[in-house]
Amino acid sequence: MSTIKIKNKRARFEYTFIDTFTAGIQLTGTEIKSIRMGKASIAEAYCIIDKGEIYIRNMYIEEYANGGFINHQPRRDRKLLLNRSEINKIERKLKQKGYALVPTLLFINEKGLAKLNIALAEGKKLHDKRNTIKERDDKREMARKLKGF
């Protein structure tokens, strides 16, 4: 069985991660089959809190090819499964200005269940993004120099 790891690469560039959580996702049968085939994206997704529950919004899961007429909607809201204490902690932090709840990694665990890593994050300013680009370029340059030896 191949491992499925769908990343949100843009999140690390746009945000500074403060705390991370691993949550289960409430899915239908055709959704989990599409994820196992790697047909999902969390690039534009974000998390919201509604009535004490956390939902992921705008996560794309392609319709399952063999789903028939009972297929799922690709961008519906999906409930995240977390402990009450974790939800309360996240809710307290999100009330502060500048914090967001960002999905970072969608994966299938060893039991075959879909899990989502979410990060409590703070938005980066423009100068922080420039520093990130500079550090990445410096790291790449160092790797090139070391490769030459």
Please give a quick description of this structure.
32% of the residues lie in helices and 35% in strands.
What do these coordinates show?
The chain has helices at 9-14, 29-36, 84-94, 126-148; strands at residues 5-7, 15-25, 40-41, 46-50, 53-57, 60-61, 78-81, 99-108, 114-123. It is of the alpha+beta class and 149 residues long. The protein has a single domain, classed as Small Protein B, Chain: A. The N and C termini lie far apart (39 Å).
Keywords for this entry:
alpha+beta, 149 residues, Small Protein B, Chain: A, 4 helices, 35% strand
Distance between the termini: 39 Å
Provide the structure class: alpha+beta
Provide the helix percentage: 25-40%
Listing every helix as H and every strand as E from the N terminus to the C terminus, the arrangement reads EHEHEEEEEHEEH
How is the CATH topology named? Small Protein B, Chain: A
CATH-assigned homologous superfamily: Small protein B
Averaged pLDDT:
85
Q: Strand order across the biggest sheet?
A: 1-8-9-2-7-5-4
Query: How would a crystallographer describe the biggest sheet?
Result: 7 strands, antiparallel
Shape: globular
CATH class: Mainly Beta
> In the CATH classification, which architecture applies?
Beta Barrel
Counted up, domains total: 1
Low-confidence stretches: none
Q: How many helices does DSSP assign?
A: 4
Number of E-state strands = 9
Rounded Rg: 18 Å
Strand content: 25-35%
